[in-house]
Amino acid sequence: MRVVMRVILIAILLFGFAGCSTNGKTEVETSYTAEDIYKLAEQSFFYIRVLQNDDRVKSVGTGFFLLSDEKYAVTAYHVVEDAEQIEIILNDQHIISDVDILTYDKTKDVAILKLPVEERGEKDGGLEIRKSPVTFGEEVFAIGFPLKETPIITRGIVNNPSALINGRNRILTSAEIASGMSGGPVLDTNGQIVGLISGSLRTINNIHLVVDKEDIVSVLNEQ
């Protein structure tokens, strides 16, 4: 009987410690569905239109706002490379013109955008950058505009958290990505940024390239 009671007591103690942190509080990590992720990001990502001086469209893509005091906007550099005019179109169809490139790194494929003074601080939203690296098999979500006024969200896994592609480390993901989504955010199940959409791996079908959040931070720190 004593042996049985001892086993029960040990099981109770182990269960108690497993559910609590060292400060006595239960640790519960938030994990969102695809529907939750989209709602969380809806006010924080936008459509980008790059125009020539004659107002003809040169390229399009996606970008997003970071959660910070300055409300920095981020996109893939190849979307805005050699841009003469840049416009941001928010999900409520508000157009922000005269957007400039604050700083960029072509190799990392990251560009930080500067909004006109009158537009700063007037928008809602902003996404938080995750601190820890992604891992093999982790679930992630990609968001962007394959078509104007047609944002989408896709879901996949991290196929490789740090693959050397053309001399740069890239996250590889199976989250589906289409043209126009470049520069959009890739989020984890907590709704935090793990990287931005850069392109596709031509040698393997349905595997796509993501710029790691560390590269975003490094470019941001250069400005």
What report would you give on this structure?
The protein has 223 residues and is α+β, with helices and mostly antiparallel strands. It folds into two domains: 43-119, Trypsin-like serine proteases (Thrombin, subunit H); 139-220, Trypsin-like serine proteases (Thrombin, subunit H), CATH 2.40.10. The protein has helices spanning 2-18, 34-41, 77-80, 213-220, and strands at residues 45-51, 57-65, 73-75, 85-89, 95-96, 100-105, 110-114, 139-147, 150-165, 168-173, 185-187, 193-200, 208-212. Strands 5-4-1-2-3-7-6 form a seven-stranded antiparallel sheet. A six-stranded antiparallel beta barrel has the order 8-9-10-13-12-11. 36% of the residues are buried. The model is unreliable at 1-28 (pLDDT under 50). Keywords: Hydrolase, Protease, Serine protease. This is Trypsin-like peptidase domain-containing protein.
Short description:
It contains four helices and 13 strands. With 223 residues, the protein is of the alpha+beta class.
CATH topology of the largest domain, by name, is: Thrombin, subunit H
Number of domains: 2
**Number of helices in the DSSP assignment:** 4
Structural class: alpha+beta
What's the helical proportion of residues? 10-25%
- Biggest sheet: strands side by side, in what order? 5-4-1-2-3-7-6
Q: What oligomeric state do these chains adopt?
A: single chain
What is the string of SSEs from the N terminus onward?
A: HHEEEHEEEEEEEEEEH
Radius of gyration (CA) equals 21 Å
- Sheet of most strands: 7 strands, antiparallel
Approximate shape: globular
> Averaging pLDDT over every residue, what do you get?
86
Q: Which CATH C-level class of the largest domain is it?
A: Mainly Beta
In the predicted model, the low-confidence regions spanning at least 5 consecutive residues are 1-28
Proportion in β-strands: 35-45%
Instruction: Work out the number of β strands.
Output: 13
InterPro entries: Peptidase_S1_PA (IPR009003), Peptidase_S1_PA_chymotrypsin (IPR043504), Peptidase_S1C (IPR001940)
Pfam families: Trypsin_2 (PF13365)
Protein name: Trypsin-like peptidase domain-containing protein
Keywords: Hydrolase, Protease, Serine protease
